[in-house]
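Hi C.,

You asked whether I'd gotten around to modeling the 404-residue construct. I have! Everything is below, sequence then structure, no commentary in between.
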Amino acid sequence: MAQTTAPAPAGYRRGDAGYRRITLSLFAAGMTTFVAMYAAQAVLPALSDAFDVSPAGSALAVSATTGMLALAIIPASALSERFGRTRVMVTSALLTAAVGIVLPWVGSFGLLVALRGVQGIALAGVPATAMAYLAEEVHAQDLGAAMGRYIAGTTVGGLAGRVVASLTLDLSTWRWALEVAALVSLAFTLVFVRFAPPSVYFRPQPIGVRRTARAVAGHLRSPRLLALFGTAFLLMGGFVSIYNLLGYRLLARPFSLSQTVVGLVFLMYLSGTVSSAAAGRLSDRFGRAAVLLTSEVVALIGLLLTWVTALPLVLIGVLLFTAGFFAAHAVASGWVSRIAHDHRAEASSLYLFAYYAGSSVLGAAAGLAYSAYGWSGAVAYVGVIFLLALTVVGWLRHGVREPA
């Protein structure tokens, strides 16, 4: 692990060499996580053809990963309390890369889904720990911006995984598409290992089922945290639903785009890279509730634009939907770390449990809406989800005082 100058007592500040190093390493960690997690999303139509499964069945290749990650994320956060943030993240990232390299060469869809579940367990250590790591090492006044950079890494990772897999798929098979994505994930893992500063403010804590349960129960008694966990469940569920099905829609009539062009549509993730970093800074300045509400409204407007059959408007809609979602995620995740002064890893892991549970449960169900009613059914389904999320943030804005 790279060594760096220890932060001042209040934590790393913007402009410090340590701040640049920690944000670079967490950007790479976000890349690693999302390349591994969502490269499969680009090959879902190919998996449907190769294994003769429906869109809802094919989506299990994504839902198995996010579902098992959700189940593993609280144990992973508990391990980070005992063995250290960076040690857990490094182990998690390396195991994820190893599973990813083996996974594309299995012979059945059932085994592929099973290994994707194993990969989800391996992945859990990075997202379970990253937010707590930042909250401990970065000055509170700059935490929003630092968290935004980490979320930006997840957006670029999601983009890279999908685009790399899509471009490879046009030249070869879905197996090589996933293999190349796994090698990209490994490369960013090595960047993270090289640059992540050691924890300065982390202090090991004893772990055990009883202690972890007490910490979790304490967070679940906080109305503000419960609202943010619900926000994560709804927003991520709706977001993954659209991206799981987007390839099916753009490959079919009236668009009939090629696999390469569909892959390039995932460049829309770059809007999330910009918006998440900007939202982190804006939330530090204007308040989290206002920025979260605005971000969700932008995402909902974008979603409605994808309902039309004019390709330019659909693309603008995807752009706004993606930007709004990642801005909202950056704000909500940073807010959790500000509210939870104690047991931050458990608080972050509960947020991410809800986040990935939403991806698994709501994302899988979206395939049923699409199979029954086409894209209109998918948009209506996700629209209801986002309206519920707006209701939650409205309560947060008017019913709960902004934390210091």
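If it helps when you're writing up: The two ends are 34 Å apart (CA to CA).

Thanks,
B.
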